[in-house]
Amino acid sequence: MHAHDITAAHPQVGGRTNESLIRCVELCYDCAQACTACADACLGEPMVQQMAQCIRTCLDCADVCQATGTLASRRTGSNAQLLAGMLQLCEDACRICAQECMRHAQDMAHCRICADACRECETACRDASAAMGPTLQ
């Protein structure tokens, strides 16, 4: 929500923002929250033992999304190679998590919602990677 304004106000950005990267930051944080909530909801399911892989996948994806959002929010200096790697890792984590959650989506609304958030984040990471130029505002 505030990612655009805070990025545009950064003294080294000077108002020139990379909208794909900003959208990615927002969706990374959104996906991290959805994955964390989904893992918690899986823990509340009666067949929690059968949800172990889904829980693990959601928590892994949440951690990757959180780290990617944090890295992509930094504008002082540059570490384009590391950011490119994180965007790819996040895209992969989201794809894997969406696939796992879809296995349970018919019976569990939280898994369907999480899968949707993961797909949106996966696309945003791909778009941000494609939009990365010499400057990463």
What's a concise summary of this model?
The chain is mostly helical and 137 residues long. It contains five helices and no strands. α2 runs antiparallel to α5 (109-131) and α3 runs antiparallel to α4.
Question: What's the SSE blueprint?
Answer:
Elements: H1 3-8, H2 19-43, H3 52-73, H4 80-102, H5 109-131
What keyword list fits this structure?
137 residues, mainly alpha, Substrate Binding Domain Of Dnak, Chain:A, Domain 2, 5 helices, elongated
What would you say this structure looks like, in words?
The chain is mainly alpha-helical and 137 residues long. The protein is built from five helices and no strands. α2 packs antiparallel against α3. It is elongated, with a radius of gyration of 16 Å. The protein starts with a helix and ends in a 6-residue tail after the last helix.
